[in-house]
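ok posting inputs for the pyridoxal-5'-phosphate job
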Amino acid sequence: MNDRSIGYFSMEVALTPDIPTYAGGLGVLAGDTLRSAADMRLPLVGVSMLSRKGYFHQRIDADGRQVETPEIWSVEDHLKEASAQTSVVIEGRTVHVRAWQYDITGYSGHVIPVYLLDTDLPANAECDRHLTDWLYGGDLHFRLCQEVVLGIGGVRLLRALGFDQIQRFHMNEGHASLLTLELLDTATASCGRSKITHEDIDAVRKQCVFTTHTPVPAGHDQFPMQLVRQVLGRKDVYDMKDVFCCEGVLNLTYLALNLSHYVNGVAKRHGLVSQHMFGHYVIDAITNGVHAATWTGPAIQTLFDHYIPGWRDDNYSLRSAVSIPPEELWAAHQHQKQMLLQHVLDATGVAMREEILTIGFARRMTAYKRPTLLFHDLDRLQGLAEQANGLQLILAGKAHPHDDRGQELIQEIFGYQKRLDGNIKVVFLENYDLRLGQLITSGVDVWLNTPEPPLEASGTSGMKAALNGVPSLSVPDGWWLEGCVEGLTGWVVGEHALDPTQRADGARDADSLYHKLEHDVIPAYCHRRERFIDIMRHAIALNGAFFNTQRMLSQYVLKAYFT
Ligand SMILES: *Cc1c(COP(=O)(O)O)cnc(C)c1O
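and the output
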């Protein structure tokens, strides 16, 4: 086990539905990556945070207000304590760090160990014991302390556990980039020096790989130097201004950029946007994927097992989904839809019907994702529902506790739900998580995605839908720019966004959305079912076969890990 050569670091990771150590897309990607690494027998080891109280559990009150409570879970029931501990220094205090191990076993039996760091030890000061309680909780100071634990503590823990052959450290987003400091210290010490030199920097760059996920500068972690000085208590960081700080702040994205030999964005367009944002660096792109077996619903899995045996081992073979008998694909889809509608009934008391066109929208509730775009013109939406003999909408998503606008959007959705009452059934399902994500992406008829271009780095939920034969109706951004074949894998909304000089325009995008529903989606679904099923088959064959973490990881292997 200790022969691992790649350490994969992520602030969050979605391991199983019962372990709430993730907030959203970043953690789901980390989990899917490690699951595929296990399938592919790759020599990875994962490092993340324990998050004893999770991200948060979401309830929505009768007025649509989000109520946040801790996610209660038993660490001991799901994880085993690792055999070694380590420590870091924060503000001059020694903070002891232990880890909890979760083993991901691939279909081939290969195991990827994942270590979740935990500072809740009696030997630690009270304030330090809470550093691994919450994911993305607290203020800047708390966040920086957490990132010391993840980056520096993570590298030290791997060493303490005997992982002494790691040659690549992969930072899934900048949160873990303080690990470069630890690697620099090691490089410096191994040469018998005390001061970091540019040779050490070159040595560390060879070891590090950085994946950036955010296409807006404000989305990147940055800390005032004053705070950095207080928390890290070291001076050399300021001596090397070109590496560590820019404009008086430590920006963890720049730290990772400066100290990685390979940097990538998570879709082709996002690579270009990032390249533009960070002009001095070379930024490549590897488009995200999802773990095929995790996100394919049970009925479609059975169908694949019958018609495409070996698809778990070789996701590319899903291309032969084009020859699955249409009536069998439809039956499997309807089965998964019934499961979803049963959940809707149990959770909300709303009875939806399986023969009615059902659109899904679930993701983080935040302004740029525009979850209310579909409700832009309620009269027009009602007209579409008449044309389709009914329309059902299933929504879900958490808003970050500090994102007031995101929380307001949930309330607005509740308002629309009331106004549409009777004519169009709208449900908002509470506490979007892995389980609900699987149920919704595999059970609706069409997957809607309307972020404001170019703010969607990749997006992955449409890929989950595609594996289930659910076509996307999406703006041209993120992965959809690569995945959309108009009328064959789904449809583009708001084509004008293809022109990067055009600003996002809600009214125009809504108009385009209604137009696509009226002229393409509804006619195919309601009147040309065989055509609709053909689109479903192509969603699997063209997109399920490609936008998976198996293909994604093989690109990391070629471009980043073993180069
Ligand atoms: C897939 C998933 C996400 C990410 O969805 P995007 O389309 O990338 O926004 C977030 N949360 C959960 C629970 C998911 O399953």
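notes: The first helix runs from residue 25 to 39. The mean pLDDT is 95.
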